[in-house]
Amino acid sequence: MAGSGVNQLAQAPELRTKLLWTLMLLCAYRVGVHVPVPGIDAAALKGFFDSLQGSVFDLLNMFSGGGLSNVSVFALGIMPYISASIILQLLQVVSPDIKRLAKEEGQAGRRKITQYTRYLTVLITLIQGFGIAALLEGMMSPLNNAPIVQHPGWEFRLVTIITLTAGTILIMWLGEQITAKGIGNGISLIIFSGIVVGIPGAVGRSFQLIRTGDTNILVAALLLVMMLAVVVGIVFVERAQRRIPIHYAKRQVGRKMFGGQTTHLPLRLNTAGVIPPIFAQSLLLFPATVAGFSEAAWIQRVVSWFQPTSVLYNIVFVALIFFFCFFYTSIIFDPKDIAENLKKQGGFVPGIRPGENTRKYINDVLERLTLWGGVYISIISVLPMLLIAQFNVPFYFGGTSLLILVGVAIDFMGQVESLLISRQYEGLMGKTRIRGRA
């Protein structure tokens, strides 16, 4: 099997090029994670973040690929871009102009929305960069009470704002380049790589907890079994489909008969993929993290309500997951378009009248699937996280992390397989060329 995969790769130069582009761009992202913002005492910063292990900072640091823990140029990660994407998608519901760009103006409209998303990302990054710069100036190391910022003032704030904004723009550009020249969704792969590189350190911390007696080895074994079961469940559900049978009526054009085929419309159980938990956590994590830098009593009380192990956090988290499941599914899948296309092509669902009845039927099936998809994502995201918090295990082994890792890996391998299949078809067409008569 491995040999055949190598041979297929050797015979597909465009696939090799795409894989190299993806690898090089991800490596460039990982280099930027280790470039710190100027003017910060690294030792004092490390002491501050060491005192916050096991809190919401660990979770946000995971999504930033480790950039937050050393306040690198990529400290904000891809979250500002995701926040801007959420805002633009929500505006499609309330703004007729943006909805027209997305639905009616085709590729040109989508390019405009992408441009608006970039501008909004810069605005969000400027605001967040100023907030982080101001908060860093008031932070002290808990070890020796040393200030984290060596020379506070407007010079440091401007440098930090410019650095963080440039870093986020560069991440955004890297993600777009991966999507255009590499394989897979660039933004998802950047989040994927940030989680993957943190797993070895999380495994080491887990073994350290076992050696010190903070975690029982039996409990660790049970959690490992649970994680394997979660991975198997994710693979099973992500592959699950509801197939709606489609028949095509026979029609005669000239002397030829067309139609009469039977096919199906595949609907995934989890149509929205990994977007709902990513969007939900991006909305919940950053406000709590920024507020966590303040020492005001009322802010600390609010932060305690939104810890990943709190009841309120998980209730809001599940509500946001369901919202984004339905919202994102409605954006990427339109039953009305499907029904109209089927009617134009002479296709119909057995027992359902074409047109509006078909649209209602497909919409009802999609809503039921989306509901169960939201239940599945909520269970995967919340229950393992509560167990991990109970037994003091790093966040990298949580259900959301596993869902992102497995979901992005399945999508990546699916695109690689599609490229290989298209390559085989091209080779087959080349071998069956019909030679003209002499």
Could you say which structural class the secondary elements and strand pairing correspond to?
Answer: mainly alpha
- CA-based shape: globular
Mean pLDDT figure:
77
Strand order of the largest sheet: 4-1-5
Termini gap: 44 Å
Order of helices and strands: HHHHHHHHHHEEEEHHHHEHH
What is the makeup of the main sheet?
Answer: 3 strands, antiparallel
Runs in which pLDDT lies below 50 for 5 or more consecutive residues are 432-438
Q: Tell me the helix content.
A: over 70%
Strand content: 5-15%
> How many β strands by DSSP?
5
Radius of gyration: 25 Å
Give the number of helices. 16
List keywords for this structure.
single chain, 438 residues, mainly alpha, 16 helices, 5 strands, disordered C terminus
Characterise this structure.
This protein is mostly helical and 438 residues long. The chain is 70% helix and 5% strand. It is built from 16 helices and five strands. The chain has helices at residues 2-10, 13-33, 42-50, 56-63, 79-94, 96-103, 106-137, 154-181, 186-212, 217-239, 275-292, 297-305, 311-332, 335-344, 356-390, 399-431; strands spanning 241-248, 251-253, 256-258, 262-268, 347-348. The chain has a three-stranded antiparallel β-sheet with strand order 4-1-5. A two-stranded antiparallel sheet has the order 2-3. Strand 2 and strand 3 form a beta hairpin. Helix 5 (79-94) packs across helix 11. The longest helix is centred in the last third of the chain and has 35 residues, at 356-390. Residues 432-438 have low confidence and may be disordered.
